[in-house]
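re: ur question from yesterday

yeah so i grabbed the chain u mentioned. its 217 aa long if i counted rite. heres the sequnce exactly as i have it in my notes:
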Amino acid sequence: MIGLRIEVPVAGWRHSYAREYGESYPVPPPATVYGMLLSMVGEINRYSHCGCQIAIALLSKPNRSTVLRTIRRVKVAKQEFDKRNARPDFQELLTGIDLGIWVDAGDDVGKPKLLERLQEAMVNPESVRRFGGLSLGESRDLINSVVLWRSNFEADICEWLVSDRNGYLALPCWTDRAGSKKTRWGRYVLADAGDLSLADALAFNDCWSSIGPQSIS
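ran it thru and got these structure tokens back, copy pasting raw so excuse formatting
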């Protein structure tokens, strides 16, 4: 297992079914975190580490704000930059994001495993070949810092993302890029960390999300 602390100044994780108003999830979906971790190690094949497990905790309660920005939707086919494809929409942004993220091998199909590649990236960053800025979500949602988890961070944990079949948060654990039919969803709640120790929380299976499609071929 490897633990990371990640700080992001500004980000927005748009609800999958949001339309005119781009409401943000309060926490990054597991699929979004997985994509960021792949980018961190320079992996471009998202199937490379299917089966790995991710746990997510909030170390801060981000502030919300709303901005007006131009959103592009294809209304005029084969004319991407036609002005009719652009329209102003309101979008929620979160600021002051501080996260704890843990990765376990689980049924990771990769060799080496994702957690091993992350450990190598943190110890020997010069060994990683990658491109672009490291972001959590859209390319503009750049990450400020990534550090290995230390024991003194534990006191900062305020909420855990926990699986709950009746949970109020429906988050993607795997995104179908060709549409939404094969997107795999999980139901979650944000649970107060309270007096729960880090070791006890990570031993609790419902804190972990398995990444990948339902069947891996």
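noticed a couple things. The radius of gyration is 18 Å. also The longest helix spans residues 30-41.
anyway ttyl
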